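Review box. Two proteins, two foldings.
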Amino acid sequence: MPKLVFLDVDGTLVDYANRLPASAVDAIRRARAVGHLVYLTTGRSRAEMYEELWDIGIDGMIGGNGSYVEHRGEVVMHQSLTLDECRAIVDWLDARGLAFYLEANSGLYGSADFRAAALPVLRAYVAGKGATNSETVVVDDVFPEMIYGAELYRDDVNKISFVLGGFQDHLDSKEAFPQMKAGTWGGRGSHALFGDLGVANIDKAHAIEVLLEYLGADRADTVAMGDAAVDIPMLEYCAVGVAMGNSSDDVLAIADHITTDVEADGLYNAFAHLGLLEAAIG
């Protein structure tokens, strides 16, 4: 039977300098040519799904770590923060002096101080992921489409990421917004550089379940590939969970298969190992 393949983006499809390996593109195109379906399943919002990724040829995406589901141009699900929730978070971050950006399908909206405040942590982020250009990276390299000076009280926001002054900021955000899903993200492994706040009770696994119901597809025909803790729910939910060689230890521990690093043709090698480059039977 054809498989439904769910791919994390950063650290799985693209490397930590945002480079897209030619072998990964080849793997996806060959898999789709023989009947498999491929969905990018990411923390990114649709605005961060640049044309380079769509041009690979994919069947859709799950964005915002599960808040948005799209299949062949049709929106299957979208759960966003309310205007009041967004306003409360923005005001709390401003009062605390924490730089942030809003992640919406329409764009990424940065606080006035984000470009300067995020520079050291973004350099730490790319350095921790193994990039060789970490000392020269600027915020606009990582977020080329970031919009500054726009309205920050919005009703179309999937989640809000903010620069952590320390881990206590994350703990305090959980206490301040118990009705939200509070997380952290950062460098290789589970090192926390950013906090985020989003819609509660969503994750990549739930979004996959919603998509399967929409398609009338079987969970037994699913494959997920990822590298970070946020990917664990979908790796455990899908019939086969693949960890990239560059994954954090908690991801490696639960994977059904471990492939090579993203920079070492990991995605292609995983597709080959699972027979996804061959014609589906049935």
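Next protein.
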Amino acid sequence: MSNAMTRNIIIIAVVAILVIAAVIAIPQLLNGPADEDGTEASATQAEDSDGGTSSDVADQAAADNKDAPSTASRSSDPELIAGVQVAARAANAQAPMRIDEITTMTSATAVGNRIVYRYDVSQRLPRGQINAMRDTIAQQNQRAVCSNAQVRQIIDRGAEIEYAYYGPGDQLLFSTPITSC
């Protein structure tokens, strides 16, 4: 794997992480201080633009995305779930995003507390190269996610980030979930 390809993958991972961090932090800033008992003063369920609750949207996303590489664990934090959904929509607004000569980030899907970024690799790669890519990308993404204090807090709250790589013929090559730091 070339240095340019590795650098580009890291850049996209960091941008995705920052989008999630911003989306989660904005509602917290807007909600203001917590009540004396430590609970937030805002409503307990976020609404999407159609008036449904965030859990309704997450359930629909899960139904629509049966081929997701992993099943997201469920979080009862509606702000976290809503934030992950907004981050997925923001990533999809930027998609497709060419990473390098063979890799394109094509979509992001929010399922519960997990955001799955889908990357399509346009050419067949030998199994050894796929394994090397998986190991390198998993380490780099884990390091990038966990080195950002704001994103680490979001992961500690229960958010999960997954990077799924697909080859020609819609074949899942590998997936690198980040569920803890």
